[in-house]
Amino acid sequence: MTGTTEPVTRYQRRVDRVKHIVVERTGLSDAKALELAVHMVHELDTLPERVR
């Protein structure tokens, strides 16, 4: 079997982790949870290092 698999980046793993938490805690749909997770990860990534 020679299927092509797309590599999973660290960014994708972070978004998936946040999405899982959002779905678990809020009961939002996967699509809405993904939208929120992408926004949250983006915001965390733009924080200056000293603040983190």
In total, how many domains does the architecture comprise?
Answer: 1
What's the number of helices?
A: 2
Provide the structure class: mainly alpha
Largest sheet: none
List the helices and strands and how they pair.
Layout: H1 10-26, H2 30-46
Helix pairs in contact: 1-2
Describe the structure concisely.
The chain contains two helices and no strands. With 52 residues, it is mainly alpha-helical.
What does this molecule look like?
Helix 1 (10-26) crosses helix 2. The N and C termini lie far apart (44 Å). The protein contains two helices and no strands. 65% of the residues lie in helices and 0% in strands.
List keywords for this structure.
single chain, mainly alpha, flat
